[in-house]
Amino acid sequence: MIDPITVIPAPGAPGVFRELTTMRVGGSAATTLVATTSDELVRIASEVWASGDEWMLLAGGSNTVVTEDGFDGSLILIRTSGIERIDAGAHRHPGTVRLRVQAGHSWDALVDYAVARGYAGIEALSGIPGSAGAAPVQNIGAYGQEISDVLHSIAFLDYETGAVSRISADDLGLDYRTSIIKQGRQGVVLSLDIDVVANEDVMAPLSAPIQYSQLADALGLSMGDRVPLKELRRAVLRLREGKGMVLIDDDPDSVSAGSFFTNPIVSEAFARELPQETPRWPMQPEPDPVAVTPLEDLAMGFPIRRVELNTSPRPVKLSAAWLIENSGIPKGFHLPGSHAWISTKHTLALTNRGYAAAEDIAQLARYVQQRVQAEFGVTLQPEPNLVGLEL
Asked: Which residues are known catalytic residues?
């Protein structure tokens, strides 16, 4: 029998997901259970799994959209918190500090903690809503940094085995906004270990080298430059606020799930067929030149020539925001009679203007997908977890 420190609302109780998610839509769960410690999280999850009930996890609620029908199962709310500096032993990279972060800890609070102590490596991830435990599941990233850059490992409660184990970052299948957990390995992230860089100059700690042109431009600097950690954090927060991507009570553009679509990855050949002005970023470096000289040339004494051969087509990342806007959907767009809008600041965010239902969000998302598909032949994929909704 589960005995968590929480209220268990009756089926049909109004507004659980509307109150717990940043999109502010959704009905209730049949049962809501709250875990405030890692041990409690293991116990609650294990007992729910043993019961055979349907289950879902929720922490920050920034990446989940649930229908008004709610969820007919057990909702496990992860409310664990805490950061500790741990001894990583001889295997830690020189100059780094290892932090162990509980899964329910606010991600941005973690970034603020690191910046305040002069630890570099996650400062460009400032302002991302949600919990630390969700970061490796989604392999969050922004402004040239990703959690995969600093992640060492996670503590994971496995659904199949019921055992807690530590999984290294190398074994998580981290790729663009995905991991083996997102792809289907069921369980619960209990905590994560990250290795951040301890600045030698503790009085004026510097950021990691800037790896994103928009951020460099905002600071009036060049790619690869470094600035004081706090200055870079402030710049990132300003950029995110300008796009409505920081949760602010009086900003209706921030009532969203953040970026609703991932940037599509297409083949290099497909990208060449798109309009020339389409923003694109190859996901792999140019292949090295290959030395090729015909045998008859060698026989005649000609030197070996170097010829560029593209032996393996490279995947190319496109800008979902650019595709949306150039398919004819401007910032601030909404379907007639709907309270779901495209953000007035950024076309990647779908927002709730106060009275939207989950189906309003889904209807607008489907319309965006259809327009981009018709104009460019690209099918945008949703980034949030959709519960009871289909696009």
From this structure: 177, 259, 383
